[in-house]
Amino acid sequence: MCVLICLCTAALRSTGTAQHFAYLLNTSDYRILRMDEDHDRMYVGSKDYILSLDLHDINKEPLILHWPVSQQRKTECVLSGKDTNGECGNFIRLIEPWNRTHLYVCGTGAYNPICTYVNRGRKPQEYIWHLEPGKVESGKGKCSYDPKLNSVSALINGELYAGVYIDFMGTDSAIFRTGKQTAMRTDQYNSRWLNDPSFVHVQLIPDSAERNDDKLYFFFRETSAEMGQSPVTQARIGRICLNDDGGHCCLVNKWSTFLKARLICSVPGADGIETHFDELRDVYIQPTQDTKNPVIYGVFSVSGSVFRGSAVCVYSMADIRQVFNGPFAHKEGPNYQWVAYTGKIPYPRPGTCPGGTFTPNMKSTKDYPDEVINFMRNHPNMYNAVYPMHKRPLVVRTNVDYEFTTITVDQVAAADGNYEVLFLGTDRGTVQKVIVLPKDDLQTEELVLEEVEVFKVPTPIITMKISSKRQQLYVSSELGVTHLALHRCDVYGEACADCCLARDPYCAWDGKSCSRYSTSQKRRSRRQDVKYGNPIRQCRGFNSNANKNTLEMVQYGVEGSSTFLECQARSPHAAIKWHLQRDNSDRRKEPPGRHTKHVEEGALVR
Ligand SMILES: *[C@@H]1O[C@H](CO)[C@@H](O)[C@H](O)[C@H]1NC(C)=O
Ligand SMILES: *[C@@H]1O[C@H](CO)[C@@H](O)[C@H](O)[C@H]1NC(C)=O
Hints:
The protein is mainly beta. The protein is built from five helices and 41 strands. The strands form twelve sheets. Strands 2-31-30-29-28 form a five-stranded mixed β-sheet, with no helix packed on it. Strands 8, 9, 10, 11 and 12 form a five-stranded antiparallel β-sheet that branches.
């Protein structure tokens, strides 16, 4: 017997709404979200305010710290030609844990960056939340002057590493280090190193068990001006050794291990010309068992205004290291093209960390031969680019009226394996929850499990953070911060078939309702099928529970006769798909078109 299945849920878009925080703050620009699950808190940095949210009880009023600039500073800022509200506020751009009781916080300080310490107490029950008096210091090299320029930072062993613009005019970009050791930076006004960068993410990734090999990776986009071509934006991954002390002869107090490579995210077009997604928007780094090899997710959009589109590309550290171990890009002079450097490469290989696996006898970059330092100054760029896994994006959106702006990923254990669930923020105030399943050797199947409107007004999502402990996704925009549950199994309805067809790895039918799946529960009592979404197998005997409003899930057609199969979508967003399936088989085929006539309520099969 053949079975025709009417599938609505494959394209289901249940547009729910997230819960909003009732903030009475008159402020904007909620850019910084810093999760602190040990203290059951999340810190939020906005314009002039630093908040501490209780993760345990999210409806509780947050602890609020007002940290504006003085009236005098504001007046000076306005007199220098800047906008009162848009630029002359104290836009918080950095919140880092400092010690057991304090956070280190920096803001743009009305075009005069400032940093200070916030006492958050030892335990959350203490409800301590105040600025440490008399401890304001300069934020130069830690936070940009202009709130519109993206900066990133990481506080590691008391040293602050930042990708910032360090001047008022916003022309001097640098990867900067401040702290106990001597200040370090990228070569100034050297466009081979950095060229109008926009910093997106920073992450420490170890290279080996030897701590001296530790490298800090910067993700950014920048302008690339090839000879005879108009400047374009390109995505980059750059890195430095944490223990870089700069050169001895030259590059004094400048990074002597800085290297960068291009990140490619593209699809072939119909005409054979690649469409490049070059505008790197956000990066999420998924830790794995092996700390040296996290998985890198990037969200990209198309730069320029020719057409709109965005994509998610995934990179492996193995591919990234291979590019950094490959040829250096070389340019003979301003009127030459970039080529692969084929000359002699000095020892130790440029970009190697001192005191590491390959350089046990050179304790500092100051011990490196002059030729290594000289080589570094002119060859910061790798010749090969980093391609995504499988040489193609994981998710692509073109010909739609929105773009992705942010990404975060959760790993979920389901009955039939582990899944990466992508949460993708858009520029219209929604979050899409997406899984990508392998279909066959070359193809993948993407499922949008749901799209949630997190802000009533369409506004770009700026930052997203997951609280695994609380199973919540926190989302911020210009307008505020909201949260939504990672799983909302009840939206899929009460029937076993609905739950199964939803194919949400978080959810399973427990005999009564669609609820959170947990690996610790007895398998037999839980019905879930993420891979195939096959309710015939999973829900045999349970289908009669489906209420009349939900679609008729499975229609039996007997071969050799004509049958009308009824199928109505229960959601206006749902798309209907018919699949032909032989009994006792998991394989599904598109039904042959010449035998099937689709009408509004169903399909007629001859
Ligand atoms: C909110 O802030 C804006 C600009 O900072 C100001 O113009 C407005 O009067 C404020 N509204 C209230 C209710 O305080
Ligand atoms: C943490 O740092 C702050 C600021 O430097 C300092 O006042 C405080 O005493 C430190 N606390 C601990 C526990 O070290």
